[in-house]
Amino acid sequence: MTMSKKDVSILIVDDEPLIRESLYEILRIDGYCVQMASTAEEALQTLERGKIDIIVTDFKLPKMSGMELLEQIKTADSSVDIIMMTGYGSIEMAVDAMKKGAYDYITKPINDSEIKIIINKIVEKKKILRENQTLKEIIAKEHPVSFGGMIGASESMRQVYNIIESVASTNATILVSGESGTGKGLVARAIHDNDKYRKDRPFVEISCGALSETLLESELFGHMKGAFTGAIKDKEGRFEYARSGTIFLDEIDAFSPNLQVKLLRVLQDGIFERVGDNITRKADARIIVATNQFLPDLVEEGAFREDLYYRINVIAIRMPPLRQRKDDIESLVSHFIKKYSSANNKKVLNLSEQVLGLFKQYNWPGNIRELENAIEGAVIMAKTEVVNKWDIPHLSKFKSLGKKPSDDKNLKKVVEQPERDHIVSILEECDWNRSKAATALGINRTTLYNKMKKYGITEKRSRGL
User: Fold this and answer.
1) Distance of CA 126 to the CA centre of its chain
2) How far is the C-alpha of 381 from the C-alpha of 398, rounded, in Å?
3) pLDDT band at 145 (very low <50, low <70, confident <90, very high)
4) What percent of the chain is predicted at pLDDT more than 70?
5) How far out from the chain centre does Cα 443 lie?
6) Could you give the strand order of the β-sheet that contains 246-250, starting from the edge strand earlier in sequence?
7) Cβ 44 vs Cβ 65: under 8 Å
8) Contact, 11 vs 55, CB < 8 A?
9) CB proximity list for 54: less than 8 A, separation 6 or greater
10) Neighbours of 298 (CB within 10 A)
11) Average pLDDT, whole number, for the chain?
């Protein structure tokens, strides 16, 4: 639903009739729904009777001041935007009011165009917020629980679904990042399956970290007979096999400098040669890459080419770790219980409330992959239709849940743990960008690196926190 001016309700609060009525006429003629109040108390009564979108109030009011009115309104309804009116001698008060939540301030005498510009900005902001909310509701209806094999209706997953739908039928190279076990491969597959041009063509996946440089080069580009020891015949590479389909390169960070150069050539010019051959071949596959590393750090360390990073980072999709989307655990549990009950000819329907509670407390360092393995084991061990705590004695990692912090008697560890947790939390908020995290923490990068070293914090090792 589009927001028009007549949908915007504005309240003018001033004890001077001339200013109050002048603003009333200016804004009413401009098309807004306008009301007036001469005191803060009268303004609060107006708010109780119905929704007000914008309040324009003077600082100096009888009995309750404009600042007190601001504080009361922001406590009751933070969505109300407030413009403060002040004389030239009260600018410091106006700035203080903005710190407490006022949208803006104007000085008396009131300039008609100035007040209209500020209100137009507020209305545009509210339009965007309303459109975003409408979009979220549409996405929620379209993807209530699952999409492309991924399970979850959390806000972070809906954002992933939305990006996939937007980019699937384009030619853009896509970088999927996230911790191990978060479902990066499912994202790549969903992009291919939603690509109307490529979905009926090959989807080729290769785990780059599992192969040596020589084998990986051969797998990607193919080789000619005799190109190296063991090359007993000509071999077609994955880029040739994928043709005009999709090739998914998992663990892109495992590429050696030599292979990085060759991949960059494929991305830039769409050409390559087989190992041991001088015939140039055409690569027409859509390329999706994935990593569980923070590539900008590898670029900074010289381990990953900067030009290649920018080439693969045309569209970035960050998969959230399971600990950041615990609202999805119940849906994931239900999905995996059905899957493994069927696979093992068992009739398990659910987890007990106690076990589900333990699962929601646990931080799942191995993410969805670890949760799936836990459910498989629990289903196999279950003796009834409901998995109980005694059905999972082998899952010893859950035994630590519920321990009090005081269980650790070492004073140094007890004191240091909150600092370590806070640093990890800020790093995650900044998507593991060390520079941003250092700024947010109020320390320099060297201090941050030293603390990360002291506490053994790396993106991989911090996942259980």
Assistant:
1) 23
2) 16
3) low
4) 89
5) 25
6) 203-207, 246-250, 286-291, 174-177, 315-318
7) no
8) yes
9) 8, 9, 10, 11, 80, 81, 82, 83, 119, 122
10) 16
11) 85
pTM, full prediction? 0.57
Let me know the angle formed at the C-alpha of 49 by 44 and 52, rounded to the nearest 5 degrees: 70
Please report which confidence band the pLDDT of residue 398 belongs to, taking 50, 70 and 90 as the band edges: low
Taking Cα atoms as reference points, which of 431, 425, 435 lies closest to residue 319? 431
Beta carbons of 148 and 189 less than 8 angstroms apart: yes
N-terminal to C-terminal alpha carbon distance within the chain: 42
* pLDDT score at 406: 44
pLDDT at 313 over 90: yes
> What count of other Cβ atoms lies within 10 Å of the Cβ of residue 66?
26
Q: Could you give the CA distance from residue 419 to residue 81 in angstroms, rounded to a whole number?
A: 37
Rounded Cα gap, residues 316 and 33, in angstroms: 43
Q: How far apart (Å, rounded) are the C-alpha atoms in residues 138 and 133?
A: 9
pLDDT for 228-244, tens place per residue?
Answer: 888 889 999 999 999 89
User: Which tokens go with 182?
Assistant: 């978060």
User: Contact at 8 Å (CB) between 6 and 29?
Assistant: no
Task: Read off the pLDDT of residues 50-105 as tens digits, 9 standing for 90 and up.
Answer: 889 999 999 889 989 989 999 888 887 878 999 998 876 566 777 788 888 899 88
> What's the token pair of residue 238?
């994955």
CA nearest to 296, candidates 73, 445, 90: 445
3-state secondary structure at position 424 = helix
Catalogue the E-assigned strands of 324-460: 350-351, 386-387
Asked whether 100 and 70 are in contact (CB, 8 A), the reply is: yes
Rounded Cα distance between 337 and 375, Å, is 6
Q: Which of 459, 156, 148, 167 is nearest to 291 (CA)?
A: 459
Q: Give the three-class secondary structure for 52.
A: coil
Q: How far apart are CA 433 and CA 202, in angstroms?
A: 35
The confidence score (pLDDT) of residue 405 equals: 43
Q: Which domains does the chain have, with CATH numbers?
A: 5-133 (3.40.50.2300), 146-318 (3.40.50.300), 322-400 (1.10.8.60), 408-464 (1.10.10.60)
